[in-house]
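Dear Dr. H.,

I hope your travels went smoothly. While you were away I took the liberty of generating a structure for the chain from your last submission, since the lab meeting agenda had it listed for discussion. I wanted you to have the full record in hand beforehand rather than looking at slides cold. The sequence, exactly as received, is reproduced here:
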Amino acid sequence: MKKYLGILLLYNLGKWCHQPLITAVAIAWLGYALYQFVRRHGQDEADDTSQNQALLDSAQVKYRYITAAHFEQTMNQLDKPGVLGDVLVAEMPQGRPIGAIALLTTGMLRARQAMVQTGIVKRSDEQRKRAYTPGYDLVSHDYVKVAGQKINLYHRTHLLPFRFTLSEGDNIDGLLFTGTAHLNHGDRPQMNYLMMSNQARVNQLYSIYQNNHYRLVLNNVQVPGEPVGTHYSLDDFEQLATRIILSKKQAETEFKYEASCHYDTDGLIPQSITVNLWDLTHQVLAFTVTLPNEV
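The corresponding predicted structure, in token form, is as follows:
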């Protein structure tokens, strides 16, 4: 700012003193300053574009369908049914979600998470509303009032977390299913119980994982110290998976995150979801859990 004030004063001095040389110097100085500003601004934009492209290259997201039979064969198995970067969604021969898989490395997840954090990719309620979510129209009006506010009992729920897929499900059918608020986020609005933060839960799960030789098989999904009947949520395990994957020092460490729907009826809404995280590089199951899809 001081530079431009100096230029202005020099220009006016030349005008007042009727000195064309001083005026010319001021104009030349201004032109050079503007050139430098445009050059720096252009370089900043080029740097931003270069950084964005680097993140896109590292993220390597590819969406593909696989048959329901192929999904059932690979679910619960230590294998790699595609290539790294794939988001694999099972076809729905009966019109209801079957399951989905993300194949990614620590480096890919870092890039995808950075794209979300920097706003290159943004969450969108509108895109999520356009996504095919079987059964949601049957329960979309089920809600309770908490402090005068309507709280839905069911959500359009991701089988794979957004940070793993960068998708709201509007570009590939079968990624979203109808999940309860309890399953999706840990809320039980009918009991006036809303999950403000689940960091304590995630910390607890990660501690169990570490103390059990970096493996977690959770048979009792009830959350200690919380209202009777309250179980862990998908968000709890999505954050746990994120923490485990990002804890690896080697960016090339490979993982398979998979989620499968289970049905006890012919309906469109699953009764439970199984989630597994496989460390493909070290050939181990990091965690497995089956969560009920109940209010």
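Two observations you may find useful: The longest strand covers residues 254-262. The two ends are 60 Å apart (CA to CA).

With kind regards,
E. W.
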